[in-house]
Amino acid sequence: MSQFPQSLLPDEASPEWMNKGDNAWQLIAATLVGLQSVPGLVILYGGIVKKKWAVNSAFMALYAFASVLVCWVGWGYRMSFGDKMLPFWGIPNTTLDQKFLLEKAFLGSFSNATMVFFQFVFAAITLVLIAGALLGRMNFYAWMAFVPLWLTFSYTISAFSIWCPDGWLAKMGVIDFAGGYVIHVAGGVAGFTAAYWVGPRSTRDRETFSPNNIMSMLTGAGLLWMGWTGFNGGAPFTASTSSALAVLNTHICTAVSLITWLSLDIIVFRKPNVFGVTQGIITGLVCITPAAGVVQGWAAIIMGLLSGSIPWYTMMILQKKCQTLKKVDDTLGVLHTHAIAGILGGVLTGLLAEPKLARLFYLVSDWQHFIGFFYGLQSGQVAAGARQLGIQILGVTFVICWNVFITSAICMLIRLVVPLRLSDEIIEKGDESVHGEEAYALYGDGERHESYKQFNAYGFA
């Protein structure tokens, strides 16, 4: 039996400041974003690589998801959204105190518990995306160290600077609706930088790295696409017209990006390529993310056309011509699909942000803030539009520079303890050598693969 009077329980469980509709939508949105990682990217990574790397690739994503959660409630959330320690960083503290979790969040009409969970899934998917650049050769023990270090010294700084009301870029008025900068530019640049330090896959793997299961790859891509409903739809922290517009713009941009990428593949390579379609989906999702709820539908179409063509060019044409890009083995091309698409989306936000929609999202009435450059020209607010575009460029420059620096520092630190790259002998065998498991092991009646003897310890015959 409860020790509290029954008359008090309803008020404690549903305080006046809580909006049950907003709270329910925020938890649903967070779950959709979580499903993008587990099982979405776990399935996508497991299917998009060679058979010998299916277990390792899926495992890197699964570990990152779990590790980030522990770090997030331990110190990461408060460093991203807590009391200011520096203009770009919060004071580390836990979020496990019951009193704190039941209090009203810094934004929205729901509790801190809801906000902590929602922000966690964004932090987690960022690390999972970074893994995409490192598949097929990174030492799993090095990855285990990389995840908490990068979350602590990179993600929290970008998140506080851009999303926390006390952050220096947030105060300047940078627009990053749902993570184009904090997640995709940061993750894409960090993945490419880490790929440089880890080193390349084997020559054979770089030359031929076909997906082992295209249907699994498409399943993962589908979960990623549909899960983005929560990714961008949850950004306003309310079940509102802004969240609905963000969802619709997200899917419009993605569909146009997919068709654009597909069309270019057909025109140039004479074949509709499923792998290319997957990349087109991702670039569309990423590009619209910083702008989802602050642009009109026609702008989402323009962003889809550009997100399906510019990253296509950098990945399919420029990548093969530029010696600098060729030297870095970015397994899934996260530089193109996330960093370049995210930069594109952020700059286009500075051009296309509609002031009325921006005010609905940020709940401000000042015309001098959050106005795209083109709307500034139209309304005579040229200086305000130019300022917004400049802030967008400043924000992306900060995220790029910090992530090149801190990711390099983290990789150099880790390699003092364990090698970043697996040995050539282990890379040749893949999952069997790294984990003692294979994704598609076949045996006869009563037989067991040698590597599966370890399961006897868990009670299997």
TrEMBL record:
GO terms for molecular function: ammonium channel activity. The keyword Kinase does not apply. Residues 24-440 form the Ammonium transporter AmtB-like domain. It is a multi-pass membrane protein. The keyword Transmembrane applies. The chain crosses the membrane at residues 24-46, 58-77, 116-135, 142-163, 178-198, 210-228, 248-269, 281-306, 335-353, 389-414. It is found in: Cell membrane. Keywords: Ammonia transport, Membrane, Transmembrane, Transmembrane helix, Transport. Pfam families: Ammonium_transp. InterPro entries: Ammonium/urea_transptr, Ammonium_transpt, Ammonium_transpt_CS, NH4_transpt_AmtB-like_dom, RhesusRHD. GO terms for cellular component: plasma membrane. Belongs to the ammonia transporter channel (TC 1.A.11.2) family. This is Ammonium transporter. It comes from Handroanthus impetiginosus.
